[in-house]
Every structure is written in C-alpha cells, then in structure tokens.
Amino acid sequence: MSRMNKAASVECQISRIAIETQSCISIYLRRVDGLPFLQFSAGQYVALELVIQGKSLRRCYTISSSSQDRSTIRLTIERVNQGLVSNWLCDHAAIGLRLDVGVPTGQFVLPSESKKKLLWMAAGSGVTPFIAMLHELADAQLSCDVVMLISVKQRQDLIGYNELEALIKLLPNVKLVTTFTSETDLSRGQLGRWTADRIADVCPDLHERLAYLCGGAAFTTDMQQALISLDVAPENVLVESFFVVNTNNAREAEPTSMHVQLMPHDVRWKTDGTQTLLALSESQGVEIPSVCRSGLCGACSVTIKGPCHSEGREALDDASFEAGARLACMTFPRGDCVVELN
C-alpha cells in the first residue's frame, strides 16, 4: 500500500498523553520541525499514518483541541470493537512516538452565521468535535444558542466532563443535557436513550435549529430518523458518523467464489467475498485511493455494477448511493461485479 502523500502530511510526535476514561485517551501532537499546524476549523479531522505489525495503516481522528493554538493538536481516541489502530494507540501510545499527520479536512464545522441556533447530539467519542467547537465559541466570544444532548452508557464514560463544564460556564447560551443508557443511579442524571419525544421535550424550538449528529453509525442513524419524524428537514441535519467495519460479520457468510473486475485497470480477481473491496485491491497490489479507511472521508468511493453489501455509507449522499457509488473500505462483493474508480 502506498504511503500518505508526504507533501500533504507532516511528521509529528506525541508530547503528552491524557487518560480520559477507562477506554479512552487523548494524545497531544507537535510537529517535529517545530512549526505550527495548518489553520483548521473546529470539527475537522486529520488522518494519522502509523506502522503496525509491518503494515502501514491510516485512520482519521477529530481534532478535539482549540483551533486557536496551532502549536499542538489534541486527538481523543476511544477503544472500539474491531478498532485495530484505535486499540493499538490506546495500548501503545508513548511520549516521543512519531506519526505522519495529514492536513485538516472535513465539513462538520460551525455555520458561517454565528447567530444560528444549533442542536448538537453526541454519543461516546462523538463529543470530541463539539468540545473543539465550544473552544472556538469561547475563544471568539460568540453568543451562539446551543442545545447539546449527550448519550453515554455511564457517568464514567463521559469524555471531557470537567472541560465541558468549564467551557459551558463561559457560554451562558449553551445548554447541556446528558442521558445515561446503562446507569442505575438516578442521582447521576437522566436515564435511557434519546427518543423523538425526549428530544422535542428538551428542545421545543427544534425547528429553528441546525442539527449536528456525531457518534457511532447506529446512534447517528437512529437520531437522524428521530429528527425527521419530528419534521426536521433533512438538509438541516449534519451527520458525522464514527464507523468501524465489522469484518467478522462478512466472514460468517457462506464461502463462495466470485470474480471482481476493477476498471480502468482491467484487472480481474477471484475472491470468496470475505474481504472489502479496498482490502482485496491491496492484497492484489492494486491501489484504490483511500485515506481514513472508516467511511468518513469518501476518498475510496467507487461505482459498482453487480451484487455487493455495504456496512455503511457515511460519506456518500443519497443521489450518489442510488447511482451505485459505494465506499470500497466497507463494501464486500456478493457475486460477480465490475468496480469502477470514481
């Protein structure tokens, strides 16, 4: 697999590590050359590249620190099921570890209209872009009206709680409500999952707000459906989904034999359907352009003619998906098919 474009990345090293929860850490990165990072907006992410067991791997992580301090960036990383890179970093990150860091990118950012009313909904590590956005609001002294709804399993799973409290004290127009899905202590706050009724109750002026959703694919899908059921226009819902392909599910499928043709290279492969199209191409020495490998960036978008199964579609809009576009990093062939690079 080709490495990240060096012209679009910088070598950094970890300068500090903070324990956020039992399953989550934050790493602080500085450029090795001592220069500041490129300007970025709160909510954007960077791609990390590191070598694990001899393989060069790339993953994307949201910058959770203030965009005003470019001498250091903070990435908050949560341990997840099937998360090869995230779990490795949680176990092995150390001061001085060097990583290649790509340029900041992403459209999940604050609106240009500073007085726009907002609804933020997050689950787990999905809170990280909102922490960065709170820093941006506080740094710019913006009086943006925000209702922030967070869902975590238990109180100890809430990332950055003290930081959130400190920032909200500086932002009187930000309202934070947290619900716990596996908590038993009623004194800790609201219990249960967010539903359409609960959202409408906490946020009665919902239709005046631009909604931002961030978390796992199941959470963002459920919350998007809840908002639409409350007659929120789909164009007023922005989604950033943290997604991990569950390759075990693919391997449980009955083994079979099929052929995949990749165009315009006109190469043909025989496969049993247990590898994603991206993994299949890499195993055969042919590169499909990719960055995050988790469905967020859309760099590995391809058009497929033939049967396939996709584990997610986060970076694709409805029109592209209906036209046959799929993300190679999370799509498995289910029969003979032709794959065209987009």
Helix and strand topology:
Elements lengths: L8 E13 L2 E8 L13 E8 L2 E8 L10 E6 L5 H9 L5 E5 L15 E6 L4 H13 L5 E7 L8 H9 L4 E7 L9 E2 L4 H7 L7 E7 H13 L7 E6 L4 H5 L6 E6 L3 E5 L5 H7 L17 E5 L2 E3 L7 H5 L2 E3 L3 E3 L3 E5 L1
Parallel strand pairs: 7-8, 7-11, 8-9, 9-10, 11-12, 13-19
Antiparallel strand pairs: 1-2, 1-6, 2-5, 3-4, 3-6, 13-14, 15-17, 15-19, 16-18
Plain-language structure description:
By secondary structure, the chain is of the alpha/beta class. It folds into three domains: 6-102, Beta Barrel (Elongation Factor Tu (Ef-tu), domain 3); 118-242, 3-Layer(aba) Sandwich (Rossmann fold), CATH 3.40.50.80; 247-341, Beta-grasp domain (Ubiquitin-like (UB roll), Roll), CATH 3.10.20.30. The protein is built from eight helices and 19 strands. The chain has helices spanning 84-92, 128-140, 161-169, 196-202, 217-229, 247-251, 277-283, 318-322; strands spanning 9-21, 24-31, 45-52, 55-62, 73-78, 98-102, 118-123, 146-152, 174-180, 190-191, 210-216, 237-242, 258-263, 267-271, 301-305, 308-310, 325-327, 331-333, 337-341. A hairpin with a 2-residue loop joins strand 3 and strand 4 (55-62). Helix 2 packs parallel to helix 3. 38% of the residues are buried.
